[in-house]
Each structure stands twice: as structure tokens, then as C-alpha cells.
Amino acid sequence: MKNDLNEKKAYWIWYPGDWEVWLHEQVSIKRQWREVMYPPYWRLDRHYSSVIYTYTYHLTQPEEITITADGRFAAYLDGKDNQRSNAEKMMLPEGKHELSITVYNDVNPPALHIEGEHVYTNNTWQVSCYDKKWSPVGSWKEQLDASSLAPSQYKLATEEHQPASIEKTEDGWMADFGKETVGYLKVNGIDGKSRLTVYYGESMEEVEDRENCVLLDNVFLDGESEDYTFPASRAFRYAQVVPESEDFQIDSISMLYEYLPVEYRSNFQSSNDLLNDIWKTSVYTFHLNTREFFFDGMKRDRWVWSGDAHQSFLMNYYSFFDHDVVKRTLIALRGKEPIVTHINTILDYSLYWFTGIYDYYLYTGDVEFVKSQYNSMVSLMDFCLGRRNAEDMMEGIEEDWVFVDWADIDNKGEVSTIQILLCRSLETMALVAELVGDKDSVQNYHDQASELKEKIMSIFWNENKGGLVHSRYNGVLSDEITKYPNMFALLFGYFNDQQIDKVKNNVMLNSEVQAIKTPYMRFFELAALCEVGEHQFVLDEMLSYWGGMLALGATSFWEEYDPNQSGRQHLEMYNMPYGKSLCHAWGASPIYLIGKYFLGVTPASPGYENFVIEPQLGGLDWFEGTVPIGIGDAEVYMDKEKIRVKASHGEGVLRYKLNEEPHETPIPTDGSWLEIPLI
Amino acid sequence: MKNDLNEKKAYWIWYPGDWEVWLHEQVSIKRQWREVMYPPYWRLDRHYSSVIYTYTYHLTQPEEITITADGRFAAYLDGKDNQRSNAEKMMLPEGKHELSITVYNDVNPPALHIEGEHVYTNNTWQVSCYDKKWSPVGSWKEQLDASSLAPSQYKLATEEHQPASIEKTEDGWMADFGKETVGYLKVNGIDGKSRLTVYYGESMEEVEDRENCVLLDNVFLDGESEDYTFPASRAFRYAQVVPESEDFQIDSISMLYEYLPVEYRSNFQSSNDLLNDIWKTSVYTFHLNTREFFFDGMKRDRWVWSGDAHQSFLMNYYSFFDHDVVKRTLIALRGKEPIVTHINTILDYSLYWFTGIYDYYLYTGDVEFVKSQYNSMVSLMDFCLGRRNAEDMMEGIEEDWVFVDWADIDNKGEVSTIQILLCRSLETMALVAELVGDKDSVQNYHDQASELKEKIMSIFWNENKGGLVHSRYNGVLSDEITKYPNMFALLFGYFNDQQIDKVKNNVMLNSEVQAIKTPYMRFFELAALCEVGEHQFVLDEMLSYWGGMLALGATSFWEEYDPNQSGRQHLEMYNMPYGKSLCHAWGASPIYLIGKYFLGVTPASPGYENFVIEPQLGGLDWFEGTVPIGIGDAEVYMDKEKIRVKASHGEGVLRYKLNEEPHETPIPTDGSWLEIPLI
């Protein structure tokens, strides 16, 4: 065996999922309301405090290893647990031996790092929480490799940013950072001592309203340090700094912008400047919410919600293509056994978790991760299936929250959207059961999905109205059509051609059907419209809806936007004058709509081994852009006269129409450009 | 409402079981092997870090409350969670309002203490771990009431003890505390600085063997303090203190004896001084192991084992009658969901947990506690029943450890003892199902118990040999009789009169049947022999077995005692020269045997509302003693000429024989003596 000691090879290992679960616990309680704690509405799971690692080595000569544990540890060989050591250096005898290390830490995950020439911690180690089961360890080779940085010490990156302007106010200073940002406020050049209050605002209205702004900090500065960085990371554009003492002075205000280092792997430029701004603002909004996990919004909740995350996953595939944050988010959302409520306590949010797995596999092809989640999937699916009614459909029981959308809708009884999501979840189960070789279950899940799909169409399809109705309650079928079930059925390909046509005109483009007011559900609505070829319509919607927010001065996209509201109404939500998040991940969906439906890049097999590019101008004069396709990238240019594409990975085809006739041309696999004239 | 503010009424509350689970986690990792950590072989469960308390009050005028939380908290009224406060003082408005307090603590249980005139924390509050369920809170009114002492700060009591002797040795000092003890060693009158090593021993052999003694401490003393108390509580009789520096001096060695304050509610004196010593040493042994929980032994494991605890529960009813330590132990053993292994990973130990519940209810009548455990019982029983084989019997599957006893026995397949314990567990389920009003389950558990009992007798009873055989493996019935199943069936009353007679002579008194070598199983063996009237035999056994340990210098009773061993053999176990615990709870069973079978005090209905006293001299000339009977006590005197009893609680009968004829006489309920002449 040849090894280079200078090569990084040892990395931290832990009980699978426990670092993620612990990190989720820690970040979930960062939400505050005016300095008062605001923990999530769901159970926070915890890491195991006592775990044992094992590894069987073969050495031809003795070797010294260095053991670093995050916690107290004991090491022993060959099960001789009455001869244990807690020394940092351990000499391993030659031959074949089983090395066991038990680590305890009730505060941080009891992670382990061992360095030796041949024996070192990596993903071939096994671990147990003393439940008589051994699992492959969890790890993050790329980031958590240095023995000096235990997983519990992991932090996002920071970078000092200056405000666009600072003004002296009557009793303090007002800093405007020019756009929404997230990080640690810093006051520099402190002179004097004083109690200091900072009022934060995503809007000028909020920062000026000292009684009602959502975030504030209050601290006493003793004047002994030249500058002071506030301990909590906040989301804001404006910060008003108000000292109690009139003698207190500062030189400047800055902030440590806090972010997850990601690669910006996509790009978009078009003939429409507003659309270009929408795309850029979307990416910025999305990055602010892409952190330890995919968060919903950073000012208020800063929580991990499964429905929101499901969309973030998709946006991520058209921007950063970061595997790790998807994996962390899926693990954190799923949490630990026993499952006694839905994820985030919301029925639909359990189901989006499955679709998130489906999409992750499709986009990344990371079969190992998907397989590692199979037991967790089975257990959550058992929970869901156990909550079906006599008709084998899911409805909200006990205290389940059936969300679907912030809208005036009645989600009692059998909601058709829920059954469609369940159907897709069962399909995901069948897919992963196949991957792990659980043959009996493949068929079982497959059959259940088919039966449910048939049932959905036979019960909820209203031929007269040309769409799926919203729900059935106590055996009484609603005759109300909503967009929700129809757009999901469109996206999942559950309709036949005839139905597609009807749904498109009678539901999706029908202004009599209740309009959707959240960017959250506009995501699916507009994607579904693209699926039925309404790119021009979707472009107009993007320009008016997201353009509408920009016109109101948005520097990041919002949790909710109703063009019919005005003034301070845009800031209100949840009975709070500034309750609305003005930087919400689900506001960033143009990333996905543009990447998938305008640039037109879609995987056709897991990990983009096969893919399709089907660009659509949708009314634009031209666009050009890049979309990550797994380990490679696809570049797309289109104007009214030609399409040019190239790709650095996989086998792709370009789809386009010439004289209204569909065509397909293979994309060169040598990375060279393919150009197709359109006239 | 009239309230005296000086009266203690507010006390700490927490998520039910979480303080106990947390405390168990903390104490379980105190085991060390020569300063190296030695965590338990089973999963350690953890408290919920984020919980929410709720209480609905009615106030006729506003009232200020003082909030103390162990952790960060937020309080709000009437579900208005966007108007929350973390102030210690809160003014409650008059009227009817719902007060919510959410508390977070990832290190200690997030407990809550609120003091107000009318609104204060007590057991009428509800709590949730955000799983959409509300439970009555956990609390310990008698001990954890002061707002200044959070549950996480709870400590056992200490008391400074001086050694019986201290000798200067070649390179240090040797202290002999005269008997086994548990606590913190202390060196006094320090002069100089030095690294200091302390070698502990339960025996002189151990303390003198620096390379092999199980416990040691190593510390550097900088000479700045006059005395030093070692941070870890140790079990030992001898301590050898060895400084590295020759100039280092101390004046004296003492120790802080650490103990659970309990009431010594029983007493025993008899005509036999050795038996009196056995009883006293048993109580001392038992007290040393009665702490936060009932531990097995304090030198080596200091863990909570269900089989050991089951016996400790019974000893406790004949000594301290401390409810709290029983409840803490049952809660800690049961742990949290999900159940994926047996308690302590041992099949029999899951079953003893149920019998522990059964006995707790019988002795204390504490119906509230038993009911509070019903859900946990159902879940553990479901786990057990789910692990039955096609014959509906339990056997070790996967990696279950089927223990029964430290003995040369084969526990593969269907072990009859296990089925008997399962039967008793099912009876316990039926009993508690009845208490909580779960009618369907009462019948179900009852039927299952009856069927199993029939099956046990029809399969394992060997009419020829006159007893139950040990096991059946792969359909082949063993023809080996062991005492285990026979003594449990005797104790649980599963035999008919004919069987009892056969078992007594062919099994229990048959020297051809494999002898039992652990005090653990001698407990049941001797109890069973008393059940069949062999008091004289049992007395002789106690005098020779426990007397044998005393003759070898025991100051507390051992984990194992084999009279056929000699010298250092008595100290060895688990491949360690001093591996045997010389102070083991299960060594203290004479407390139970004497209280229940000689003094003869037994509850006949829950909580000693009805009871029986049936004293048996068993060959003694006389004895007198006291046994706690719930809130009262029973006093018993007997010699060959008379019996005298009195009781301060419940309705009792005295059972005795006159001229070989059984008699019963009611015991006066006015607390006066009843005297029965026997000749």
C-alpha cells in the first residue's frame, strides 16, 4: 500500500445523520422575536451522546495513530474492553485487529478523527449507538477533514461588507447596506461606553419603527474594545444604531456578511433587462437562504421547512448544484425515530420529502446517498400509509396540518393534491426500493402508486369542468376546481393528452379559477404552464409578478406578493406589521423556471448521464446561459435565427422545432458547439 | 382561594421522564476503568431540548409571577406567540388566560419553576415536546421545589468520614475506612506540590496491586489549597495515596461519604447474632447501591440493570420504602422510543421491568404512577410480542442476550424461565390496562397470559422428573431440569399443589440439580423455598452463604460468591483480577427474605390496604422487627411461645399455626398489640 502522508485522507466521522441533526437543532433555535427565543413548532431531534466506532485493520508492522475525539473517548483492541486507553497516541500492533473507540459527548456530536499511515478515519468505518446495529459512518470529507476543526466547530464563511450609506440621525446612526443581507452587524471605532440598541429592518418602514421591528439587539459596550461585532447573525437591509449615552461615538458601521461558500455554476443573460434583473435577484435571494440547510427566510423563521426545501432543491440544481446542502437538509428534515407527526407537522411536507429524494437522485445520480436513506423512507412511508382512511387516501387526522398553500381554501377531507403527492411519493419508494434491491417492495409500492393514480382520476376528475376538483369531504365531492391538483398532475405527467388540453384552458389559463398569491405555489403553477408550452405567458407573468416586486424596490424576493396590495400592506403578515419575510427562498423560483424551461436543460437519466436541452425563447429576442449538468455544464444560446448548445458531460440531445415540426439532434460529446439554424 | 405565600407550593416541572432520563445518561457514564471512560453497552437516551409548558388560569385580579427556567425561555399568553417575553417577572392580566412557556436547553432538561400567589408550577401543568401531544408534567415536589436548585443541579448528600486507620507506607499513605464505602476521597493539610496517584481497593489485595486495581485517580496538586477533594465518587474500602514528589506532605485523609438520604424504616433483631450481622450488612450494602437509581454495584459498573433493579425494588419495600428511587429507576430503564433492543439489551431484563411495575403497584398502591407508565408498557410489550416465534414464545433473536444467570446453562431457543416471566408480564399488562380503563386490552392480555401459562405447563413440565425443564431448542425438548423456571413458577403461583410438592423435593431441595452460585438467583431460589415452607433450610443457607462472606471479611455483600473458591479467586471476575464487585445490590437479598418470609409481612392488596403477617421462626429462638407497610409500619415479635404484632396502617391479619392447624386473627386497627400464645 502506498500512501502519501501529506495527502489529506483522514477525516471526521460520526453517527450517520447525527451531525446534521445536531446542527439543525442548533440553528433552529436561532429564530428570535425582538431578542426573545422562538423555537420551532415541531420536535427537535438530538444526536446520540454515546457511540462506538469500529474498524478492522491489517498491518504488516506496528503503527502509531493519533486519536482526536470531540468528547471523551476510550480505545481498545479486539473487544478487550477491560484494557482500554484514552491516550491521544496509540501504538497499534501488527496483524489483523479490531479497533474500537467509544466516544461520549452530550453537548456536541461525539465525532472521531484518527490519523495514521494506514489506519485513519474514513467512510469505511462503522458506528453504533449501542442499539446492536452497525451503520456506515457519516462524514463530510471535503470540509471536515482537519483534526483541529471538529464538526461541532463548523461555521459558515464571513466577509466584511460596508454599507451603501450611513446617516447620523437624531439619536444615533442609520446604515443602509443597499440591499438585503445576512450577517453580524459591527460597530467600529468605539469611543465611550454605553448601552446600545440596534433596530433592524428589511424595509425603511421596519427599521424606523422601533416598537415593532422584528429584530433588534441590545448590548452594553464598556468602551474597552475598538470595535464590536454583534453575536447573532441577522437578516436586514437597514440597521439603526442608537446609544443610550449621548457621549458615545463610533467611526463607522459595517457587517460581516455570512454565507455558505458555493460555486455559482449557472448564468443567464437575455434581451430583456428586467428578466435579467429578476434572475440575478433570484440567485441572490436564493444564496441568502442557502446555508447550513435550505432555510425558508432569514429574517423571521430561519427554519427548515420541507415544502420550501423541496423547491430550493430544484433551484439549487439550476444554480449552485451543491449536493451537500441538499443532503444535510433531507437528513435534518427527516430527523429521528419515532415518527409521531408529519415533517414540520404538515402532511404535505412529509410527502415533499419523498419528492425531494426523487429529484436529488434524478439530478445528481448519487445512488449511495439515496440508498442510505431507504430505511428512513420506509419508516416515514409506513407512518403515512398508516394514516390513510378507509378509501386508502390520506387526509388530515388528529392534529395534522394540511397546508397546500396560504390561500382561502378548505383542506378538510381528501384533498386531491395530497393524493397526487402521495402517489409521487410511492413512485419514489418503488424507485429506491429497486436501487437497494428490495424486490418485493418495488412491486408493492408500484402497485399502490398505480391504484392510487387510477383512484385520483376516477374520483376527482370533473369532465364537465375539465379538471381535478379540490377535495372530497365526508363522501361529498367538491365541485370547486383549484389549480393545485391540476398543476401537480401536469408536472408529474399524470394526465393524458386530452386532459392536458382541457386543464390548460379550463384551469391553468382560466381567470375564473382562484389566483395563486404566493411565490411558493406560483413556482409549480408556472412550471406546469411551461410543461404545456405556455412560455410566453409564463414570461409575462414573471415580468409582471417578480418585476412587480422589483418595481417596489425589492432587492430580494418575498414570501408573498399580492399586486393588489399597496404600501405597508406589502410588509404585513401573521398579524405583525413587518411579519412578511422580504427574502424568502421560495421567492427565487425564476432560477428554476428559466433554467429548466427557457434554457431548457433537463436530466433524462440520473446524474445527467442522459439529458435533453429544449430551449424556448418564449417571446424573448435572445438569451444565453449556463446550467450545471452534474459534473459538467451545458451552455445554451438562442435567438430567433439559431440555437447553439454545448455540454461537457453526458449524452444529450437538442430538441427544437423547425417549421412547427419537432426535431432532435445529438449534442457532441467532445464538448464542441452544436449550432442549429432555425430559419 | 386562600394561600399562604410562605407555604412551599411551587416546584420544578419538566417533560415527564426527562429529568430521570437525563440523570440516567449522566450517571451511566461515570463508570471508569483506571480513569478511562467505560460507557454502558446500551443506547443512552436523552431529554428533549425544546419543550413547551401550558397552564390555563383564572385570576380575579392581575398577579405578578416570577419565572425561573433551566434554559432559555419565552412566555406568552393566549397563543399570541408573536408577543413573547423573556422577562423574569411577568404581570398576568386578570380573567381566564392560557399561559405558554417554551424552554430550550440542550445540556440540561429544560425545567420550569414559576412562583406567584395563585399561578405557580405544580403537577396540574401540561407539557409538550412539540409532537402535538400534551402530557402531565414530571416533578419531584418533595425535593425539587426551590427555584434556586434546578433539577439538573440535584446532588446526593455527603458527610465527611474519617478512616479507621491511616498508615505511612514506603512512598505514601494507606487509608482503611474500615468497611466498604462510596464517596469522594479528600486529602487534608497539604504541604508542597506534587502529582498524586490514588489507588483504590475494595480489598487489601486490590489496593496494593497498583497495576491492576480497577479504580485510580491521578491529579497534580499545586499546593495552593489546604485540602483537595477528588472530583469522582469512588467505591472502596482502602485508598493508597502516592505522591510523586518526596517533599509532599499531608496531615490526613478523609472522604466525603456520598449517599441518598433515605429513612431506615425496617429493623431486625434475632437470637442469632450472625443473622443479625447479615441483615445489617445487607441493609448497608443495599444503601450504598441505592442512589439516583438502584445501581448494580458501585465499584465497577455503577450502572442501572433491570434484573438487578427488580430485586432492589423488593428489598426497598422491606427497608427504605422509598417510592422515588423506584420510580426514577423504572423511568430510566424504560428510556425513550423507539424500542429497538431489550432493556440493557437483555431479553429477561425487559420482562423484569414489567414485574417491577407489578410489585411497585402491589407494595405502594401508587396508581397514578403506574397509569402514567401504561403507554410505555404497551410499547415495550408490543416489542416483546413482536419478537415471539411461531409458537408464540419468546427466544433470543438477532443479537438478544438471554441472560437468566451467570451459570453454565444453555439459553438457546425457548427458555422456560423466559416464558414464565413473559406470562407474569402479560398479567401485569392486564392489571394496568384495567387501572387505566383499557377494557379490550384487559381481556386480550389476560387471554394471552392464560394461553401461555397452559403452554408452559404442557410443554416444559416433565412429570417423570417432577419439574419444568430448562428449554426447547429447534423443537427438541431438553430433559435438563434447572432451578430457574421452577422457582419462578413457584413464586408466581403457577403450580398446583401436586406440582409444588414434586418441585420442592425433586428440584429445589435436590442436590443433583445444578447449584446456583450468584446471590442474584439465590434471591429467587431462597424466596421460592420459603414459599414452600422451607424456612429452616433457608435460614441455614443464609447463615452459611452470607455468613461465609462475612467470615471472609466482607463488609458488604458480593456480586458472586462460590464457597468452593479460595483466596484471590474470590476477587476475580470478567477476566480481571479484581473484576468482582464486593458491594453488589443483589447481594443484599436477606433484607427481603427476612422481611417477607421470617417477619412474614406481605401486602394482600395494593398499598398494604390489606396485608398478612405470617411470621416464621425457621429455627430461630426469637426475633423482633419492623417492616414498612406503605404509610405505616408493622412490628413483629416472635418466639417459641408467642407472636406479638401491631400495625399502624391498613387492615391486616395474622396467620399462624397452633398444633399444626392454620389460624387467622385480625390485627387491631387502632395500632395496639395483638399477642397470640403458641403453647
Automatic annotation (TrEMBL), chains A, B:
GO terms for biological process: carbohydrate metabolic process. This is Alpha-L-rhamnosidase-like protein. InterPro entries: 6-hairpin_glycosidase_sf (IPR008928), 6hp_glycosidase-like_sf (IPR012341), Bac_rhamnosid6H (IPR035396), Rhamnosid-like_N_bacteroidetes (IPR048932). Residues 54-241 form the Alpha-rhamnosidase-like N-terminal domain. Residues 266-595 form the Alpha-L-rhamnosidase six-hairpin glycosidase domain.
